[in-house]
Design brief:
heterodimer; A: 278 residues; alpha/beta; Rossmann fold; six-stranded mixed beta sheet; four-stranded antiparallel beta sheet; 11 helices; globular; B: 289 residues; disordered N terminus
């Protein structure tokens, strides 16, 4: 689904590359989480997969970027948009401002895709209910709370059912259980092969539970890549500006205090921690 | 805060500054009942977090504390001031508020001017302002960016700029609306350190947060909101252990509390050190783990 080879990218006027010789292959149906400190290149990677780099941001892109069979640098944004849905970190950047209600906002993408009216209505009702926005459907998008706007931004992308869904910290304003629910939905989308999911995130507990694969970015490069259990328990995590989950921290502290002597794998999730400390 | 008003001299008040929220209800012009009979007393020097689901009324409540919103019913006192009787600009000298979205707050063209905006409104001299700006930018580790346009920074950095803007005003009360949003580990440690420092100075620090682990690490009192009402209010260690109650407003206990509960430990600690101590204690008493 994703094929990146030696991708290097400079924003206009930048002297340091935002992506530096990055290669990445993601098969269809995978839920791949991208983590890293601020400035590591997470958003830039998201923009590159969705064609905003280089088509919107300009700058200098070298290397090969192929997404869903589309040669991204060569294709038009319209051609890419049919294959990739991007959820921005800040919902203010997503909401069109051209629609008066939440329902119309969600319809916007479907109208542009030319989806028949009956199907459009059914898909909108489904996604409103999933995003817990049914009761707010007739409200202005700008009269929603921050978290509600973020759910709207996610809903208006998912309703288009793109083969590749790219999300840049989509849960930063969501309440804790709401965040977890978004992760679960993304896991289900990938697990049923309805979509391939690339998610830039800071919430490592839910990355650990739900993602198939975790990539660590640092200064525009991939410095770790593997199953969540391996990547998130690694001692290198802090040097890349990431904080391990409290489960991993507690296990390390227990080891240091001599409460555990064995070299069992360190836990990254609640379930693993319960097993570890039992 | 965007409307520049006349400078308010001698605005920084001395002495303790409690906040009293008395049976406050608030209805937006759209008809949304955002607060329904909220009462709270916040003592000077308290560190209090407000948690709860999206749309629970958290931001509406804190906007009452600096007078941005006035109650439809009930009243809010900041010190001896009723917020209805004083302008937002005057109340801002007592209560600093960092917006959830930094782009709602930023008005100036350089980071330095942005951070100096509040002290200027308070009528401080140029020399005082320069000192305030330098100190605040040092705290958020953005001293090198004083001449930068705020929109040339990342969102996470802009959030730190708005934090500095409020720190520069040296208010006795500070409110941080989702301070950790979009921050990485370094940003989290930085903001946690600032909260601890303010607590050490005896200032009142209030936050709205969805980051329950951050909340557990730094805030001694937790208020849980749902549907415009206060569901629970008490010591963090007690409130954050009430999993069923928290779930009704889409919140889960902190990771360490969930772990302690799953292991049936006698006590649910809020810090890694506390967790290890509890583990040590229970194993010492029980013989084996």
């Amino acid at each position: 689904m994703i094929h990146l080879r030696d991708v290097t990218y400079f924003y206009p006027r930048a002297t340091v590359p935002a992506l530096a010789g990055l290669s990445l292959d993601v098969p269809a149906g995978q839920f791949c989480a991208v983590i890293g400190a601020n400035g590591a290149g997470k958003s830039t990677l998201c923009y590159t997969l969705a064609g905003f780099v280089p088509h919107f941001y300009r700058g200098k892109l070298t290397g090969q970027v192929e997404v869903a069979g589309v040669d991204v640098p060569a294709a038009s944004l319209a051609a890419i948009a049919g294959q990739v849905g991007l959820v921005f970190a800040n919902p203010f950047n997503q909401i069109t401002g051209a629609r008066f209600t939440v329902r119309e906002e969600i319809a916007f993408g479907l109208e542009n895709l030319g989806v028949p009216l009956d199907e459009m209505r059914a898909r909108i009702d489904d996604i409103l209910s999933f995003a817990k926005l049914t009761e707010l459907a007739e409200r202005s998008p700008f009269a929603l709370s921050g978290g509600q706007q973020q759910r709207l931004a996610i809903a208006s992308v998912l309703v288009m059912r793109p083969p590749l869904v790219v999300l840049d910290e989509p849960t930063s304003q969501l309440d804790p259980i709401g965040s977890k629910e978004v992760f679960a939905v993304l896991r289900d989308l990938a697990a049923t092969d309805e979509a391939t999911v690339v998610l830039a995130e800071q919430k490592l507990e839910w990355v650990a539970v739900f993602a198939d694969r975790v990539i660590v970015l640092h200064e525009g490069r991939i410095v770790a890549d593997g199953p969540p259990g391996d990547v998130l328990a690694s001692g290198d995590l802090t040097q890349y500006g990431l904080q391990p989950t409290r489960y991993t921290q507690a296990a390390r502290a227990a080891l240091a205090a001599g409460l555990r002597r064995d070299s069992a794998e360190l836990p990254v999730t609640l379930e693993e921690a319960v097993e570890y400390f039992k | 805060m965007k409307n520049a008003q006349r400078p308010t001299p001698n605005a920084t008040p001395a002495g303790p500054m409690p906040i009293t929220v008395e049976d406050v209800s608030f209805t937006y012009p759209s008809g949304t009942h955002a607060l329904r009979g909220v009462s709270l007393r916040i003592a000077p020097g308290e560190a209090m977090a407000i948690v709860g689901e999206n749309g629970a009324g958290k931001t509406t409540l804190v906007k009452h504390l600096n007078g941005l919103l006035k109650p439809s019913q009930g009243r809010v006192l900041v010190g001896d001031w009723d917020t209805r009787e004083h302008s937002v600009a005057k109340t801002a000298a007592r209560v600093g508020y960092v917006f959830q979205n930094p782009d709602d707050q930023i008005v100036e063209r350089t980071v330095g001017d942005e951070v100096g905006f509040g002290p200027k409104q308070l009528g401080r001299t140029e020399a005082e302002r320069a000192a305030d700006v330098a100190a605040a930018l040092a705290l958020v580790e953005l001293s090198d960016y004083a001449k930068t346009h705020p929109y040339d920074l990342t969102t996470a950095q802009r959030k730190l700029v708005t934090l500095a803007s409020v720190l520069a005003m040296r208010t006795p009360i500070l409110i941080f609306d989702e301070p950790t949003m979009g921050q990485d580990a370094r940003g989290l440690a930085l903001i946690g350190g600032i909260v601890e420092r303010l607590k050490g100075e005896g200032r009142t620090v209030l936050t709205i947060t969805h980051d329950i682990d951050f909340c557990a690490a730094h805030f001694g009192r937790v208020v849980v909101m749902a549907d415009g009402q206060v569901l629970a209010d008490g010591a963090a260690a007690d409130v954050l252990a009430r999993a069923e109650l928290l779930a009704t407003t889409n919140v889960e206990p902190p990771q360490l509390v969930r772990l302690a509960q799953a292991l049936r430990l006698p006590r649910a600690a809020l810090t890694v050190d506390g967790f290890v101590e509890t583990l040590q204690g229970s194993r010492g008493a029980g013989g084996q783990g």
